[in-house]
Amino acid sequence: MDLAEVAGRLYALPPSEFTAAREAEARAAKDAGEAGLAREIAKLRKPTVSAWAVNRVAREHPDELAELLDVGERLRAAWQEQDADALAELTRRRAGVMGKVGRLVRQEGGLSPAAAAEVDQTLESAIVDADAAGQVRRGCLVKPLSYSGFAPAPVPRERPAKRPPPEDEARKREEAEARRARERQEAEAAHREWQAALESAERERDERAERVAVLEGKLAKARKRLTESEQRLEVARREERHARQRLG
């Protein structure tokens, strides 16, 4: 039994179980005649909740954590080489793996907003600092990590615009001209079609307007005859009343 083995067992435990387990481990080492190891075990500090959460991911999700640390290593190398393309790509990957590992840390629940922020701070430190990455990988954190140095970021770099080869330019011009010709033909065909539709609609309108005019003329004559009939009816009624009154 050595200190690293004992620390591995202790820092895998929730903080609420750490103290009692540490005392039991120290006692066992002392009973085994390893007084020096017992004293080293007794010095191990209880982890904070955020540190324990990161330790748990290091043990339970090593592949996902390894992906995050690999992105960090590549990001640091790209920064050293001032490789703008690699930095831009790795920065995008960084956001994705950070989100994935962060969700794994939080999925057990029980983290306060402050502890969750400390987890993110620790993971960011592991990305930008090799020493922090080693500590996170070992899974024996006692407290959250922080990094105050300059974090790698994409380096802007001016690039001359690439001019296409002459044959490409000629091909593009031909394609553009062909496209414009097709669009012109389609527009002309559409205009002819709608021009014919307009002429047909105008003829139909004129024919129906003529029929309406004829019908309106007939209707006017019919209304006149109706008015004459109503007048004759009124005269007949009046005269009939007079005749009836004379009979009385």
Describe the structure.
By secondary structure, the protein is mainly α. 79% of the residues lie in helices and 0% in strands. The protein is built from nine helices and no strands. It has helices at 3-10, 15-31, 35-43, 49-60, 62-81, 84-106, 113-128, 130-138, 166-247. The N and C termini lie far apart (145 Å).
Number of strands: 0
Q: Approximately how much helix is present in the residues?
A: over 70%
Q: What is the makeup of the main sheet?
A: none
- What is the general shape? elongated
What's the alpha carbon Rg, rounded to whole Å?
A: 47 Å
Ends apart, CA distance between termini: 145 Å
Helix-strand sequence: HHHHHHHHH
Determine the structural class based on helices, strands and strand pairing. mainly alpha
**Unreliably modeled segments:** none
Strand content: under 5%
Count of helix runs: 9
Overall pLDDT = 84
Outline:
It contains nine helices and no strands.
List the helices and strands and how they pair.
Layout: H1 3-10, H2 15-31, H3 35-43, H4 49-60, H5 62-81, H6 84-106, H7 113-128, H8 130-138, H9 166-247
List keywords for this structure.
248 residues; elongated; mainly alpha
